Amino acid sequence: MKQGQPIWRYAFASVMVTISTLGFGRMSYGILMPSMKDSLSLSYEQAGMLATTNSIGYLGMVLFAGILAAKWGSKKLVVFGTVLVSAGLLYMASVQSYAASLAGMIIMGVGTAFAYTPLVNIVVGWFPERRGMMIGFLVSGLGLGTLISSMLIPFFSTWFAIDGWRYLWLLYGFLSLLFALAALIILRDPPIPLLKKEQKDLSLWREVYVHKGVLLVAFIYGLIGFAYLIPQSFLFSFILESRIDRFVAGQIMALGGLMSIFSGPLWGTISDKIGRRKSLNITLVTGALSMFIAVIYPVFIGFIIGQLFWGITVVGMLSLIQALSTEQIHPSYAPIALGYVTVYFASGQLLGPGLAGWMIDHIGGISSALLLCCGLLLLAFLFSLRLQLKTDTKRVKWVLNRRA
What we know:
The radius of gyration is 20 Å and the shape is globular. It is 88% helix and 0% strand. The chain has one domain (7-189, 196-403): Growth Hormone, Chain: A, CATH 1.20.1250. It has helices at residues 7-40, 44-72, 74-92, 98-126, 131-160, 164-186, 197-209, 212-241, 246-274, 276-296, 300-327, 334-403. By secondary structure, it is mostly helical.
């Protein structure tokens, strides 16, 4: 560990940023969506496209974020991205139409791209031997944001009736400005060992863009991206359709959010001991099982069990795949590699909510979308078995070369 950098201050600042970007800017939409859908008279297909549009903004900038972080430094992008997400959140409080909502979702997606990838680079750069745990803490902000949304939406819906979702967007925007200030005060760019320029020019494509281990990680990440926004966007509505009271449904979703707070640090710490790939395999199978339980047993206890399994694994699988992406290459390429694999992840997110919304309207209702999520996670598991065989030998050789 680099000396002089307090790990818990960095963990705190990282969690605050991800609450804003991943929690408020991305995941809270699934909780607010039913209220927004009724207020703005949206179809399920349009509601799904709003989540997809958020992913378009994310996808359009995430690769550039990694490149800019490697060139200009990560801290500036983290602060700028968090402020941009704040602007999008405040704007969403005032939207009056589907078209206006699309613009707000794009702004939040772009801001998340600029903030998140450089943030991973900062924590990996300062604490390389604790990267699993630190990325886990970082991603736990996703669960905290979901938990906050799940707990607040029933009360805001009661206090402000149909416009309660607007006041929540407003609250999220002001909180995110405070989180941007915390990042500005606490975070510092890490010292990253750099390759010589001629080596970088010769090896960038080989070591990142066409590296077999990186490509396989990227494909698995794409499948996870395809899958994981589906329950975040539609599970709350499925619970309501199953004749569960809105307040109880919010508490069920809050349970998943609560468990996901611990998911990232838990699996990050476990993976530091037993390995990333083995840990990833466990989370993928458990995540798929959680959605299957919700579909075949759509009653209170079934949703509770499903949310327990989903909450304890979903953030973990994200943190594990991100840690895997940074371990395939030289540390100087870490932000570029993470940005590159995240393009696949964001591409999957483009397909997920939109296709799920179409399936809900035209095929088999929300249960068909949740089964799609289940199948995608199982497919990712099959590829993760291949990843284990393909990357271990190369990883050992890379470590031996560094020691030599």
